């Protein structure tokens, strides 16, 4: 006998019942999908071994059933007819925990999904096609942040991957697809030129470019951050290494192009310790470059690293290797540890700089989605940009649910901010809090954005 029933749907006289177990905490995999025939009064087991079978619905033509699994966070399709009859397959891996699922008059499906942990949960509704494509996303409840403004880049360029503010609070500054670092001067002026990372770039060749083949020549600045004591802006160029430029801007100076004799291949994230001036930065891979991002994500590469640059000695030290696409990095307010995001491992690692655990690392947080940049706020908490996949990867750009997670020093989720207002189902790369506002960046968008409470 079923212990609980979450949904009952009728189609042509047969009831298909999704049984779910009280299984979230135990990781129970004994859920079943069953069919009850009122005419024969027989119950037939269709699927077993489900991770918390919850909602169930039948396709408009009666050829398949969908059943949600709230323990494994997925939706399964069981075929009733056709060549695949009596077999099942993964239909969708939603960005959170799925619950009930309903079909509409057009033959599409609505599924309730809850994203988050503890009390920091964002309820969503996803409208899906019969092929498992996300057609619409709706966030419910009182959302903590709403879209205030988009900071549009100059015509044709894209990819404000990371943002920085100077000591006066001016900016944001950001690197873009054609190799320039731009400074936002307010809505009346917009973005203006501040610096470039490549001494070989020309305006004729590079300005306005979105061509990945030109990035090694034109430059591609990614992570960046100011040293507030000197006014210098440090940045990593994906191809050209660790760079710095003075407060007046201009052509950046290369500080390092290799570590321990091994040339950098794909630098990604950066943070500056305002206490001692140390610069922490990451290399995503020693095998792939930024223009190979899709191949990198599919490769299971684990050649990423975390580095520290000492401006006094001008030396680069390897702190941590063997990382699965190391991207974002952030040092704690007290300088005791640094966090680094591993994109393809869906986790954040903590490397201890001081204390009894100095020079060791540990998993800080496991995530459902892929983390990107990490930024610390004035209270010493961390904002991490998360992209939860909506189904399997689909080049050239996968569909995702973009979120900002605010984390405590000990890895607790304090807040979940869905960022679909500006980005819909496109990826974000950074979430940064300033004066009660969230500044959001994206490697694929033509703008940065501001969210307000």
Automatic annotation (TrEMBL):
One of its GO terms (molecular function) is hydrolase activity. It holds the Pfam family Str_synth. Residues 19-82, 269-355 form the Strictosidine synthase conserved region domain. The keyword Zinc does not apply. Keywords: Glycoprotein, Signal, Vacuole. InterPro entries: 6-blade_b-propeller_TolB-like, Strictosidine_synth_cons-reg. The keyword Glycoprotein applies. It comes from the Eukaryota. It is found in: Vacuole. Its main location: other. GO terms for cellular component: vacuole. Belongs to the strictosidine synthase family. This is Strictosidine synthase conserved region domain-containing protein. The lineage of its organism: Eukaryota, Viridiplantae, Streptophyta, Embryophyta, Tracheophyta.
């Amino acid at each position: 006998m079923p212990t609980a029933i979450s949904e009952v749907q009728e189609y042509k006289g047969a009831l298909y019942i999704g049984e779910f177990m009280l299984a979230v905490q135990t990781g129970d995999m004994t859920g079943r999908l069953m069919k009850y025939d009122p005419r024969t009064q027989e119950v037939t087991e269709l699927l077993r071994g489900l991770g918390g079978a919850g909602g169930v619905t039948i396709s408009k033509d009666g050829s398949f059933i969908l059943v949600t699994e709230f323990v494994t966070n997925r939706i399964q399709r069981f075929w009733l007819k056709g060549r695949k009859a009596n077999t099942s397959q993964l239909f969708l891996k939603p960005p959170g925990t799925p619950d009930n699922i309903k079909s509409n008059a057009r033959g599409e499906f609505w599924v309730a999904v809850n994203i988050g942990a503890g009390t920091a949960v964002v309820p969503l509704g996803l409208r899906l096609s019969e092929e498992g494509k996300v057609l619409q996303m709706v966030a419910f409840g009182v959302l903590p942040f709403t879209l205030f403004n988009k900071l549009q880049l100059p015509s044709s360029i894209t990819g404000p991957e990371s943002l920085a503010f100077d000591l006066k609070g001016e900016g944001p500054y950001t690197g873009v697809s054609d190799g320039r670092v731009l400074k936002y001067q307010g809505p009346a002026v917009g973005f203006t030129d501040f610096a470039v990372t490549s001494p070989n770039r020309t305006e004729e060749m590079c300005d306005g470019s979105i061509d990945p083949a030109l990035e090694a020549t034109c430059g591609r600045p990614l992570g960046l951050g100011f040293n507030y004591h000197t006014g210098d802006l440090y940045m990593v160029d994906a191809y050209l290494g660790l760079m710095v430029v003075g407060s007046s801007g201009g052509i950046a100076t290369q500080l390092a192009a290799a570590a321990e004799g091994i040339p950098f291949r794909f630098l990604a994230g950066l943070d500056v310790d305002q206490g001692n001036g140390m610069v922490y930065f990451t290399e995503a891979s020693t095998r792939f470059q930024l223009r190979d991002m899709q191949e990198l994500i599919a490769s299971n590469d684990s050649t990423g690293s975390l580095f520290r640059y000492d401006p006094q000695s001008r030396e680069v030290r390897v702190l941590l290797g063997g990382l699965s696409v190391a991207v974002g990095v952030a040092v704690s307010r007290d300088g005791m540890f640094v966090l680094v995001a591993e994109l393809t491992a869906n986790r954040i690692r903590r490397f201890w700089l001081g204390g009894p655990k100095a020079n060791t690392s540990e998993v800080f947080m496991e995530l459902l989605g892929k983390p990107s940049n990490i930024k610390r706020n004035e209270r010493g908490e961390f904002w991490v940009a998360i992209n939860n996949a909506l189904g399997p990867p689909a080049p050239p750009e996968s569909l995702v649910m973009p979120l900002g997670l605010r984390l405590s020093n000990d890895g607790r989720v304090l807040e979940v901010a869905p960022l679909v207002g500006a980005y819909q189902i496109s990826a974000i790369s950074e979430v940064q809090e300033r004066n009660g506002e969230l500044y959001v960046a994206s490697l694929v968008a033509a703008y940065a954005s501001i969210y307000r409470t």
